């Protein structure tokens, strides 16, 4: 124990990080004991609070994230000491957290919720921008406002939303995969987005029409008249219903490697000023683009998608002149793209290096057990910074998402509180059971303006392709539903549009009911599947 005069304060619980994981952890402890002695240290001047939480199913919650000043959080939770500071050291033996400003705080239990940082390709280059927090989005908006053409690198949720939200600029979207948004959805859903939102005008096929490369397994166009087929990847596919597909599109060859689209719908700009914050800001949530004006110099937006392409180098254009691009990016096929700006949305790395004594892997994060405990006594971790190192249930896996940051934060809070209680009352000790939310992966988000629900092994993650069977229903501009089955038991689902089927399919994943007797009727639009399984 540190001498009294050396310590700034003593707390039962300390939480490092004011993102969604840290705040959820604090809120959960307060649920148990509104008077609990808690310290929250955050390097960001704002905290992220989940509001308007709506339960959509057993494991699926929709909510809005609000950024609130640290002070207002303190006003609401008066028993919490909120410190705006950067943690420089955590000394687990002494149970001390030390800030850069030299303050020392003693704790009994601490939770590391320090989040993750973007892996910006070509860091330090003037013409490269990464998206991470409110400040980086504000910078991005400023740079976009002067841009006519942007090279976008990355194929996750952020890149997908960027393509949808940005207006008035040409986007060259270079992706490593064979289909857009591959981190989240399958090629069929990607094609649904393209056909619903990107193909209205000018779907041109420029020079490079190399061999078709979008996987055909889930291409909705392909399934118009198919009752059952086997995809190139060996997954059996049955299309129950596809409607309103362009006859034009169905008769065309499969998509080429290189395609050009013009977005027809240009969204109105919100034009609000974004908030200024320091360089350790929290990761953004799904509405990261809502408060900024992401509009470039052009009247329209052209999107060119380059499949299976990576950027291998960039250089500043030595030549100057009105029609010269300031930056030249070289792709893995040797082609060079000239543009005003390169936007890097290429994933994140957990901020775990400060906490080296906790068992960790640099790309995975700090390992936690099934009670969110790290390898170090009284040190817990939650959210993007951690790696859940327990045997996962068959239908759950980690994705660094806002939903999971909240689930882990809440669960860590519960675990810390119970552990502290158990130490006070060892004769009455309570064991913690793994929270039910870790039974089935679930996530709700919006892509291209559509509600997107992902359940279980929605892309057949880890399943034997030979045993998988896909059922697909697709109605252009309305919905795309894909079910992943193994031995006629539901393993995962992608639901795009307002299908209202999330609860039903989540139950079927959790219960592992044999669905062979329903067969393709599972997605028959004339059968009310919800009533069937009520
Ligand atoms: P963070 O929110 O990153 O919070 C980390 C906190 O730790 C911050 O408060 C930071 O200031 C603090 N901190 C870090 N180091 C220190 C230190 N040394 N001392 C003190 N404090 C420290 N997820 C979705 O589910 N849906 C989406 O649509 C979605 N869109 C996204 C869009 C963008 C542009 C980005 C960047 C992410 C998006 N995410 C999305 C991911 C989601 O934002 C993160 O998974 C989630 O915010 C992680 O929460 P966290 O609390 O673990 O970490």
UniProtKB/TrEMBL annotation:
<dbReference type="InterPro" id="IPR036291">
    <property type="entry name" value="NAD(P)-bd_dom_sf"/>
</dbReference>
<dbReference type="Pfam" id="PF07992">
    <property type="entry name" value="Pyr_redox_2"/>
</dbReference>
<dbReference type="InterPro" id="IPR050260">
    <property type="entry name" value="FAD-bd_OxRdtase"/>
</dbReference>
<dbReference type="Pfam" id="PF18267">
    <property type="entry name" value="Rubredoxin_C"/>
</dbReference>
<comment type="similarity">
    <text>Belongs to the class-I pyridine nucleotide-disulfide oxidoreductase family. PYROXD1 subfamily.</text>
</comment>
<keyword id="KW-0274">FAD</keyword>
<dbReference type="InterPro" id="IPR036188">
    <property type="entry name" value="FAD/NAD-bd_sf"/>
</dbReference>
<feature type="domain" description="NADH-rubredoxin oxidoreductase C-terminal">
    <location>
        <begin position="468"/>
        <end position="512"/>
    </location>
</feature>
<feature type="region of interest" description="Disordered">
    <location>
        <begin position="265"/>
        <end position="284"/>
    </location>
</feature>
<feature type="domain" description="FAD/NAD(P)-binding">
    <location>
        <begin position="301"/>
        <end position="409"/>
    </location>
</feature>
<keyword id="KW-0560">Oxidoreductase</keyword>
<dbReference type="InterPro" id="IPR041575">
    <property type="entry name" value="Rubredoxin_C"/>
</dbReference>
<feature type="compositionally biased region" description="Polar residues">
    <location>
        <begin position="204"/>
        <end position="254"/>
    </location>
</feature>
<feature type="region of interest" description="Disordered">
    <location>
        <begin position="204"/>
        <end position="255"/>
    </location>
</feature>
<feature type="domain" description="FAD/NAD(P)-binding">
    <location>
        <begin position="13"/>
        <end position="162"/>
    </location>
</feature>
<dbReference type="InterPro" id="IPR016156">
    <property type="entry name" value="FAD/NAD-linked_Rdtase_dimer_sf"/>
</dbReference>
<protein>
    <recommendedName>
        <fullName>Pyridine nucleotide-disulfide oxidoreductase domain-containing protein 1</fullName>
    </recommendedName>
</protein>
<dbReference type="InterPro" id="IPR023753">
    <property type="entry name" value="FAD/NAD-binding_dom"/>
</dbReference>
<keyword id="KW-0285">Flavoprotein</keyword>
């Amino acid at each position: 124990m540190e001498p009294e005069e050396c310590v700034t304060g003593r707390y039962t619980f300390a939480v490092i990080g004011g993102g969604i994981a840290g705040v959820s952890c604090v809120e959960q402890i307060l649920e148990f004991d509104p008077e609990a002695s808690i310290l929250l240290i955050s390097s960001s001047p704002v905290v992220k609070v989940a509001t308007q939480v709506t339960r959509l199913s057993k494991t699926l919650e929709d909510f809005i994230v609000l950024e609130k000043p640290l002070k207002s959080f303190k006003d609401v939770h008066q028993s919490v000491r909120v410190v705006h500071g950067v943690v420089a050291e955590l000394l687990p033996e002494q149970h001390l957290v030390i800030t850069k400003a030299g303050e020392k705080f003693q704790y009994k239990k601490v939770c590391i919720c320090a989040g993750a940082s973007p892996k910006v390709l070509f860091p330090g280059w003037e013409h490269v921008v990464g998206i991470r927090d409110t400040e980086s989005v504000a910078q991005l908006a400023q740079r976009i406002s002067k841009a006519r053409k942007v090279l976008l690198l990355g194929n996750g949720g952020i890149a997908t939303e960027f393509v949808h939200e940005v207006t008035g600029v040409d986007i060259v979207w270079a992706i490593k995969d064979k289909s857009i948004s591959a981190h989240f959805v399958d090629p069929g859903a990607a094609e649904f987005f393209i056909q619903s939102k990107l193909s209205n005008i000018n779907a041109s096929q420029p020079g490079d029409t190399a061999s078709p490369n979008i996987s055909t397994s889930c291409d909705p166009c392909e399934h118009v008249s198919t009752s059952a087929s086997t995809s190139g990847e060996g997954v059996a596919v049955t299309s129950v219903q596809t409607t309103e597909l362009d006859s034009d599109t169905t008769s065309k060859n499969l998509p080429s490697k290189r395609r050009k689209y013009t977005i027809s719908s240009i969204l109105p700009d919100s034009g609000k000023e974004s908030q200024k914050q320091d360089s350790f800001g929290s990761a953004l949530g799904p509405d990261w683009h809502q408060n900024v004006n992401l509009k470039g110099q052009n009247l329209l937006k052209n999107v060119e998608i380059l499949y299976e392409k990576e950027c291998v180098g960039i250089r500043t254009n030595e030549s100057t002149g009105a029609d010269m691009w300031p930056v030249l990016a070289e792709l893995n096929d040797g082609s060079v793209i000239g543009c005003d700006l390169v936007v890097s949305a290429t994933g994140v790395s957990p901020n775990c290096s400060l906490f080296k004594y906790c068992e960790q892997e640099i790309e995975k994060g700090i390992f936690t057990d099934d009670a969110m405990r790290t390898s170090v006594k009284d040190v817990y971790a939650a959210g993007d910074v951690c790696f859940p190192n327990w045997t996962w249930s068959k239908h759950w896996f980690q994705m660094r998402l806002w939903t999971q940051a909240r689930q882990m934060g809440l669960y860590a809070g519960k675990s810390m509180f119970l552990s502290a209680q158990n130490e006070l009352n060892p004769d009455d000790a309570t064991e913690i059971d793994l929270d039910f939310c870790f039974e089935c992966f679930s996530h709700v988000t919006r892509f291209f303006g559509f509600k997107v629900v992902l359940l279980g092994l929605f892309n057949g993650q880890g399943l034997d392709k030979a045993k998988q069977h896909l059922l697909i229903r697709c109605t252009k501009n309305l919905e795309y539903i894909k079910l992943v089955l193994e031995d006629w038991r539901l393993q995962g689902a992608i639901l795009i549009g307002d299908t209202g089927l999330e609860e039903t399919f989540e139950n079927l994943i959790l219960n592992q009911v044999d669905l062979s007797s329903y067969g393709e009727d599972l997605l028959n639009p004339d059968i009310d599947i919800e009533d069937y399984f009520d």
